[in-house]
Amino acid sequence: MFSKTRGFRSKENDRIAVALVYPNTYEVGMANLGFQAIFRLLNSFGSVVCERVFLPQGERPVTSTESGRTLTECDIIAFSFSFELDYVNAVQMLMHSGISLRSEDRDERTPLIMAGGVSVTLNPEPMASIIDLFVIGESEEVLGTLLNSYMRHRRQCASRHEILVSLARLPGIYVPRCYQLHYNPDGTIAKIEPLQGAPARVRRQHVQEIGTVHAFSQAVSPRSHFKDMFLVEVGRGCPRGCSFCASGYIYRPFRCRSKEALLSLIENNDSGAKKVGLVGSAISDHRDFEELCVELVDRGYQLGVSSFRADALTPRLVEAFVRGGIRTLTMAPETGSEKLRFRIHKRLTDDHIFKATHRASAGGIINLKLYFLIGIPFEEESDVAAIVSLVKRTHRVFFQQRGKKGTITVSVHPFVPKASTPFQWSPMQPVKPLKEKLNILEAGLRGIRGVRFSPKSPRNALLQGMFSVGDRRIGEALRAKVQGGVLWKRAWEQAKVEPEFFLHREKTFEEVLPWDVLDSGIEKRVLWNQYKKARDSG
């Protein structure tokens, strides 16, 4: 139960009351392993009581799942951000809870508002005027130190500002008020100036020994998107380094749990669930993944896996998948053109895709799901047409032995540039050409038996792009949107924000990027050289 004492003047023997907020539905939040892992970690601290909060449905108030307490009845509100589009939900939740949407306007009675997760680790700036502090990187490394420091200052009756300035000096903690942005006349950032003893850059934190942290389901729920499934993290990061994908950069170094540790976690889970979801950005790169799956199925478990690399699929693995209840295999060719695929550092051949398709079909996989990107840097018209050709050839291979049974779902996403990747300098295509490409794909795939076309909204992708590469000015538009209930076009105008400036131009190496205040652990020049290599290799 939350303490009824509000703000920063609680009694010395009070515990810290934390509202851990996933700004989306319960079903989505409980399918997020990172959220569940942090919930467990927070409640493992003797000085903390943590309750979960999700986006309410309809007109319901914003309250905790455990006791029904409101956000203002806690000491800390901790947002977990996996997706940029959830920023809108988070701001709405704060507004409906009666909390000021500007960090600088909050008084001593207002809970401290912090945030972590992959989206703000990449670029926190669009939320920088709203959130009091950010945890940059993997929270397991810093949460204990942060909470101990907070408790110590609270016992000393330090002011809200004093607490934040002190926390800004901790590793991996970014406090926006301790940094001032200076702008050039053309709207670009001239410099980011640290204030009040804050470090020049905030270094991303990562767990060196992944076996020391526990990332598995705290609770198995029939209401989760992964119904009645026990989720366990196989590893973090990806060794591949595709130029468009943040996972290969922001979660470095690539780390995996041992097969023995994973089996022990699964066997000893107290939920009793017999369906296991194996989670990670690159599960197919685990050296013992095939043996892990075979052994789990032999022990009577059903399996769930995320997207799988085509070049890692073996007949024995397909057999384990099918015996483990997997009916749909997901692969991500990303582009229809092998040449473009290699240009963006996705080293996967057409032959890999066709061999994996054949093995899946022959082994009893009923459905395929294929992920593609459009608007990817250096894409030409022929590359879009190549998606149709690749799907048709995959279709022939897949249904050659299956007859009429099964489906192929073609999921197409517009490319969105991400911070701390080689393509952070690349422009994003506007809505109109993206829609035209989707129309080409829809027409090319129409009428093919067993093929389902699943395009993602270019307008939503544009909004995600603004949150991905924008700076603090995006926060002004976000507040205007939520408080005024206006359309995004009007919100951009009110905040004097131009999508063309932030999204649709190529940035230069010399330009100060909004997230340059963060140290991702990768030299900027290294990312730039990879971007130049891709750009110049046409």
Description:
By secondary structure, the chain is of the alpha/beta class. Helix content is 35%, strand content 17%. The chain has 19 helices and 19 strands. The strands form 6 sheets. The protein has a 6-stranded mixed β-sheet. Strands 15-16-17-18 form a 4-stranded parallel β-sheet, with helices on one face. A hairpin with a 5-residue loop joins strand 7 and strand 8 (189-194). Helix 3 (86-96) packs across helix 16, helix 5 (143-155) packs antiparallel against helix 6 (160-167) and helix 9 (289-298) runs parallel beside helix 10 (315-323). The longest helix has 19 residues, at 381-399. The chain starts with 15 loop residues before the first strand and ends with a helix. The model is unreliable at 1-13 (pLDDT under 50).
